[in-house]
Amino acid sequence: MKGSKTRALIPLGIFLALAALLFYGLQLDPRKVPSPLIGKPVPAFELTSLKDPQQRLDRELLLGEVSLVNVWASWCPSCRQEHGELLRIAREHDVRVIGFNWKDERASALLMLRQYGDPYTVSLYDPDNKAGIDWGVYGAPETFVVDPEGIIRHKQIGPITPEVWEEEIRPIVEQYRARNS
Amino acid sequence: MNRRHHRPWLAGVALAGALIAGAAQGYTLEEFTFEDPAQFEDFRDLISELRCLVCQNESLAGSQAGVAQDLREEVYTMMREGQSREEVVDFLVARYGDFVLYDPPIKPSTYVLWFGPFVLIGGAGLLLWRAIRRKKAEPEQDLSPDERARLQQLIASRDTQRD
Fold first, then answer.
1. Where do the Thioredoxin domain residues begin and end (chain A) (predicted)?
2. For residue A144, which of A181, A80, A92, A95 has the smallest C-alpha distance?
3. Structurally, what CATH architecture does the domain formed by A35-180 represent?
4. Each residue of A119-156: pLDDT tens digit?
5. Short-list A145, A143, A162, CA closest to A154
């Protein structure tokens, strides 16, 4: 008799497991496509600096300390939304923020930095998505955490909010900074 | 009163409209020219099988997004350079992940996706078969000899009481 009672609970168990799985699925954002580049060295690139067209920049730039590489554009409203947070992170935390100006025009990009402030140590300028494709960029803003050896450790898709910084990015930044020192 | 039942054909018209709209893709690929028309066909087939990451329900062939245009140009350049379909697909997967493919590849992390449904159907079939077989083997719960004796006794006692 006891056996059949347990058996009757099996469908309930299956239902609960399925409900939990589907509920978990609801929390996922299909727009956030995981990057295959996590754990791999940053792709080789050769771009100029946004502020100085004569200055050539390549992946050497990203070696030596932890960097946030922030893909942004002046036409992107979410970039403006996260701009204040980037300024705060660059000011308050010991982390280098490198800009990756993407599919933008130099003049309007520079104007945005003048108007809203410039959190970037330097900004790469990629107007026609040459390096962007190699980095797997498909929208702005996106932010890569690059460790001192030039390995991509994390990719944030969408704006960095204070919560995203505290919960997702900061722990990774501190982990690799600690390893370096 | 019965207005709801007046125009059953409307549903048919709406359905046909939806299907036709789905078939018409509002994008021209005229700017991409190949000497060989067959190569253009290959190009069009390939970009139709790749997903645009910005507007995820569109293929690379049908999307108006800026990134989709960049990737069309990239695929175009690679194909004109004579790179094979596999090379183009590998190039994109290395950068954007399996997500660019409408058909996910068969590998350990997608086994559940590919084989899960068959496992479920197989499991359900097995349970059904076992249930049917059990029903056949023991059609009715027969009474044990003890129960039978008791039944006879009850019937007999009732009969005597009535008399």
1. 36-178
2. A95
3. 3-Layer(aba) Sandwich (3.40)
4. 999 999 999 999 999 999 999 899 999 999 999 999 99
5. A145
The residues near B123 (Cβ < 8 Å, ≥ 6 apart) are none
| B137 pLDDT tier (thresholds 50, 70, 90) | confident
Specify the DSSP class assigned to residue A74: T
pLDDT tens-digit readout, B69-116: 999 999 999 999 989 999 999 999 999 988 888 888 888 888 888 899
Using CA coordinates, name the residue in chain A closest to B71: A133
Longest dimension (CA), chain B: 109
* CB crowding A20-58: b at 16 or more within 10 Å, else e: eeeeeeeeeeeeebebbbeeeebeebebbbbbeeeeebe
Question: Residue A117 and residue A12: Cα distance in Å, rounded?
Answer: 57
Burial classification of residue A152, based on how many CB atoms lie within 10 Å of its CB (0-12 exposed, 13-18 middle, 19 or more buried): buried
Which one of A33, A37, A134 makes the best mutation probe of the B interface by having the most chain B beta carbons within 10 Å? A33
- pLDDT means per 10 residues in chain A (181 residues)? 74 93 88 88 95 94 95 95 95 93 96 96 95 93 95 95 95 85 57
**A14 interfaces chain B, CB cutoff of 8 Å:** no
Q: Would you state the CATH architecture of domain B25-104?
A: Orthogonal Bundle (1.10)
Q: How far apart are CA B56 and CA B73, in angstroms?
A: 19
Residues in chain A within 8 Å Cβ distance of B95: 36-37, 43, 133-136
pTM, two decimal places = 0.74
B95 and A136 in contact by Cβ < 8 A? yes
- Answer whether B53 sits within 8 Å of A134, measured CB to CB: no
| Block residue for tokens 């390096």 | A131
Chain B nearest CA to A136, separation (Å): 5
Contacts of B71 in chain A (CB under 8 A): 133
